[in-house]
Amino acid sequence: MPPRAYDTQHPVTPAHQVPQMTFLSATLDRVKPSPTIAVTTRAQELAAAGRDIIGLGAGEPDFDTPDNIKAAAIRAIEGGKTKYTAVDGIPELKRAIVAKFARENGLSYTPAQVTVGTGGKQVLYNAFMATLNPGDEVIIPAPYWVSYPDMVQLAGGSPVIVVATMATGFKIRPDALEAAITPRTKWFLFNSPSNPTGAAYTWAEVNALTDVLLRHPHVWVMTDDMYEHLVFGNFVFATPAQVEPRLFDRTLTVNGVSKAYAMTGWRIGYAAGPVPLIRAMAKIQSQSTSNPSSISQWAAVEALNGPQDFLGPNKALFQRRRDLVVAGLNACAGITCPVPDGAFYVYPDIAGCIGKTSAGGTVITDDEVFATALLDETGVAVVFGAAFGLSPNFRVSYATSDAALTEACMRIQAFCAGLH
Ligand SMILES: Cc1ncc(COP(=O)(O)O)c(C=O)c1O
After folding, report:
1. Which residues pair with 114 in a beta bridge?
2. Half-sphere exposure (CA, 13 Å, Cβ side) for 128?
3. CA 209: distance to chain centroid?
4. Terminus of the chain with fewer CB atoms < 10 Å: N or C?
């Protein structure tokens, strides 16, 4: 087949051909490719070339979806539940989500206040597409999940980044939130426990932020509670609409089954909020993907309604790995790693490594150079902090085996010991 005009791999050059950049949408100028995918790709290339690579970049649990959930999906297939469904979710799943919010968060929603999409990612995207006009601002605390600013920009809004450093446990303070609010602020985007830091806000800390929001009635809250079930020790998860019921009518509570139930590939996320917003989000989805996979929806019904007893042991497992990784990283010269309360990430600071030269001869000028040299010289893949809006740091996902984590920490220790 002859190459097409916009195919950069096989360019064709007759004078009448339309150049690539006039063919592609200007929208692309507003987004950058995912840096986490770039790291994964580089690690895969090195592994394919025979290198011994330890990947600490993936944002997903390393264990399999529980059997009862798989069985529900098989039943759905065999029972012919393989057709289009209602655009934003089957009634059975909406009811299971209503029950989950009541049971776990003390939030009282009706099915009409619930929407289901193809992963939490689509739900967040729908919400921005349904609400943002050019110039509308979305306050995003940094370090942030890589997709937030790009999603806001794709939807035509402007991200307003509020940086929280290690000194405050990577959590923003109420005065910083207050200072970021303008008449154009539409959303405050909240994520606790956080990807990439694992930082989790206590009830009192959430309350301090919701107090600020009460003073600004035009600002809505989008809370991404994806890591709700991954909090450690005696930490108690809190979500804004639960902490401050007066914000209930301007809060979109987003959650999903990906992380808690090891269902990243099934692609089911959901949200609850005011009916007009939920309807607007369904309208966007109706003209893009329509319903999420019918089979995955039935699996999610089982995830939410079925036994929840494996969540406790999972938490204990992740907590043990967190402690292993934090200890291993704090034993590295030049690295400081705080102990987070949730998720399966740590976000060590590498200020003590900047300006030094690696054993392989690379001058560590920033965290991207650090991560690249670490991968090239030791085979350990991590994601550099600049991707998440705070440097000099890197993100470690500890959702992998104890053996891999122990070996990775030893390699990072050796890498740091070699810096001079
Ligand atoms: C903070 C956060 N929100 C949302 C998502 C999206 O999850 P999914 O689309 O798999 O439901 C992720 C996935 O990495 C995440 O880390």
Report:
1. 272
2. 28
3. 21
4. N
Q: For ligand 1, which residues put their CB under 6 angstroms from it? A: 59, 119-121, 145, 191, 195, 224, 226, 256, 258, 264, 269
Burial class (CB in 10 A: 0-12, 13-18, 19+), 354: middle
Q: Counting atoms of ligand 1 from 1, which one is nearest the CA of 224?
A: 3
In angstroms, the CA 64 to CA 70 distance is 10
Which two structure tokens, joined as six digits, stand for 5? Answer: 């005009």
pLDDT digits (tens, 9 = 90+) for 136-159: 999 999 999 999 999 999 999 999
Q: Whose CA is nearest to atom 13 of ligand 1?
A: 59
- CA 275, CA 28: separation in Å to the nearest integer? 32
What is the pLDDT, as a whole number, of residue 10? Answer: 43
Q: What percent of the chain has pLDDT over 70?
A: 95
What is the pTM for the complete model shown? 0.94
> Tens digit of pLDDT for each residue in 374-403?
999 999 999 999 999 999 999 999 999 999
